Amino acid sequence: MIVQGWKAQPDGRGTLDIISQSLTTIFLCCWSALCLNVPAPTWSRWKCTVQKALMTCMGLIGPEFVFQLALGQWVSARRSVAAFKESGYPDWTMRHAFLADMGGFVFHHPASEDFPLTAKQVHYLVTQGYVEYAAVGLDRKFIDDRNKGDATARFITVCQMLWFSVNCFGRVAQGLAITTIELTTLGFIVCTLGTYFFWARKPMDVINAIALVPNVSLQKILEKAGDEAKEAYYCTPLDFIGRELSPWALYWTYWVNILGKFCSLFRHTSHKIRDDNFLPISSAATFVLFLSQIAYAAIHICGWNIHFPTATERLLWRISSLAIMVSILSYWLVEGFTWRIHPAIKNYIDKRRARVHGKDLEQYSDPDLPQTRYQKFAAKLRNNSNRDDHALDVPLKAILPMCMLGAFYCTSRAYILLEDLLSLRALPATAYQSIDWSGFIPHF
């Protein structure tokens, strides 16, 4: 096979064409598609830019992470619309729900500190009569006016991604070589198109939140809520109103907390809703997420027989692409066992023991008894949050496998991104040939 290194700009396409088109598309997928939550009031423009850069890096490591964020927020918005409609407010739309879940409304009262609200908390305040619906049932034009996203720019971005995909498929159809960086870009496109779909009605780059002033103090709201509101809170005083954490959110927070101990950039503030807040999703949405992850991993495996400069690089690419697929499949196996199979088995065994002994097994676990050294160590291992938030406990049986899978996945992704650039030094000659579009036109 004839190979060659860097190729200057010819009449057709050169190395610079391949790099510029691929990197431009990847940048659009990782940066332009992001719809971040409302920043904290004290954040400067520089801090907002740094936060967006961190989220872009997350998308660069795994675009399916951003896809999962968008999918979870879309599911939450649909649930919010259904809840408001059931409560007699049919004018509450997906745009309202997205704005609420991104911290677009803050609780404001002279007797307490301001804090962001979620869509569930806004619904609670409205249905309990603490806030008038007119304060949150905003006109669509008002919401669109706060949206800094440009529909035309989004349309052009989607067209760019589709045109890039058509070019890649056209090259394959005509037997022309495609590069690994183009194959990687296709993986970004698959996830980003889904992200654009689920974030289509989420406002972009909203800077200032809308203050909601309740007709009673926060203390009275908590007193009326009863025993549920007496528990310690870790995010906001209204945590008792449906604080839901998905298994992936627990794993992700565990990893971020480790990074936060070394770098302040990864420490979160309670004055904004986290941008990497992975919300729970429905069973149907879980299946959609699974398919998108498998499709993303399969695209890299499609490069199994692509030409590489050396046999070692080809072997490492194959190992890395398989490692990504295995990591994804293993994650779902670990999650299924940890959160579904094991609890079901444990519950079955506990019930059988209770019937045999005729006693309530809870009497054997006294929370007032002092913890052993092992129990203290296990508690610290399960939860690495700074404030000992028990809602962030990760089952011991999942910590080791999830940390190993995370390391395998990130290492494999890092090699694939590195190889995308290294392989450009020796590409097949057909990689520089342009597509003959006339070949797709029927001849008579």
What can you tell me about this protein's structure?
By secondary structure, the chain is mainly alpha-helical. The protein has one domain. The chain has helices spanning 15-32, 45-61, 63-86, 94-101, 119-127, 140-146, 151-173, 180-198, 218-225, 247-260, 283-301, 311-357, 373-382, 396-422; strands at 3-4, 105-109, 112-116, 210-212, 427-428. A three-stranded mixed β-sheet has the order 3-2-4, with no helix packed on it. A hairpin with a 2-residue loop joins strand 2 and strand 3. Helix 8 runs antiparallel to helix 11 (283-301) and helix 12 (311-357) packs antiparallel against helix 14. The longest helix has 47 residues, at 311-357.
Strand content: under 5%
Number of helices: 14
Instruction: Please trace the helix and strand order, writing H or E for each element.
Output: EHHHHEEHHHHEHHHHHHE
The structural class is mainly alpha
Q: Quickly count the domains.
A: 1
- Give the overall form: globular
CA gyration radius, whole angstroms: 25 Å
Poorly predicted regions: none
Number of strands: 5
- Indicate the mean pLDDT: 86
Major beta sheet, strand line-up? 3-2-4
Distance between the termini: 34 Å
Q: What helical percentage do the residues reach?
A: 55-70%
Could you describe the largest sheet, including whether it forms a barrel? 3 strands, mixed
